[in-house]
Every structure is written in C-alpha cells, then in structure tokens.
C-alpha cells in the first residue's frame, strides 16, 4: 500500500501497528500516526526519527473541527494520491462493571470516543479513500486499493456474549461493528474494503497485565492478516489471526 493512517499511536496497539508496518519488507510509503500530544509520544517520535515514512499528526479526535486540517495534511503529503487505508484504532476502555455501577456520563463518553469519533473521522477521510480507490481502479478490493479497518473487540460480539456487564465498552464496540457493516454496504460500489478487527486480549494499558498476548507479535500478526484481506472479507468481523467472528 502507498499510505495508511492509524489513530491512537502514542502507545499500545497503535504504536505496535506502526512498528509492524515500518518493519515490513516493503513498508508503506507513508504511515500517518495520530496522537493527542506529540511531546508525550516519545517512543513514537524516536521511531519517526529512524523512519522518514512516518508522519506524526497531533490531534485530539474529539475536536471535530480539526479533521479538515488532517485531511489536507495527508492530501498534501501523498501528493494527491489519496489514502489507501484508514485504521480507526483510538479508543477508551472501561472496567467490567455491574448494571448498578454503570453511569450515564461514562456511557456517553465511551460511545462518543469509540463510536462517534471513528464514524466522523471516516466521513472526513472518505474523499481521500475514494481518490485512492479511483486511482487504483485496476486493483481488486484490498489494502493496496482502499480500506477502512475498525479496531473492535470480541466484547462487541452480541452472539458470543456470555460474560455480561461491560456495558459501556461492549456496547460501544457492538455499535462500531454496526458502523462497519453499514459502511460496507454504502461503500461497496466504490470498492472500499470495510472490516472490523478484534486484536485479541493484549497486554497493554487497556488490556491489563493479565492479558496473554504481547503487543509486538500480535500487531505483526494483525498487519499480516489485514494485508491478506480481499473482497470476500468485506463487511466482516475478524480477529488478529484471521478467524471470522460472529456479530
């Protein structure tokens, strides 16, 4: 792929994805990595200093008025080639809580960050994705043409829900899955691939110390999996190793 934009790259899975991409035998020409505070993203800055194809974009994604600036910056750097891949990774988590402990402000905040933000950011980036798809009209659906990957969670699977609780986070990921499915219908004619991704239970600040998976190997596997996505994966929900998951 020529270009990919990943949100939430200051740490955890986002940073791991950037590392995995630049370590590919044929890395993308442009890796756009967003973070809320560039000064605090020390490891991302060090990585960008070693790899000139990494472009750090500082943005608070809750500031919807800043989206146009990001789109213009990406368009300028790619020299009108559009954006091949948008990876909506940024999210917030919430602890497992009982129904009695669930509060409306927590629900609203989680839904805003995990659902409204990726949808509105996708809407803003759509002209870039459409441009890339048109320029690669000779290619089939896939990351080399144009794709939207939404970082979901198994906790968003309604069919697999045997654990209860997780009202804020689980509900937000179920809603994000619904967005992925709707986008896959709306963007099918433009041949923009749309997929939801479950990264597994990974040992990050969000995943916690008890998680069995490590960031490095898991994000490398995620990258390997998404590189193989094609038309048959469009509108689907998959985990890091490529296993198809139920909605």
From TrEMBL:
Keywords: NADP, Oxidoreductase. Pfam families: adh_short. Gene3D superfamilies: NAD(P)-binding Rossmann-like Domain. Coiled coil: none annotated. InterPro entries: Fungal_SecMetab_SDRs (IPR051468), NAD(P)-bd_dom_sf (IPR036291), SDR_fam (IPR002347). It comes from the Eukaryota. PANTHER family: NADB-LER2, SHORT-CHAIN DEHYDROGENASE/REDUCTASE. Belongs to the short-chain dehydrogenases/reductases (SDR) family. This is C-signal isoform X1. It comes from Musca domestica (House fly). The gene is LOC101896187.
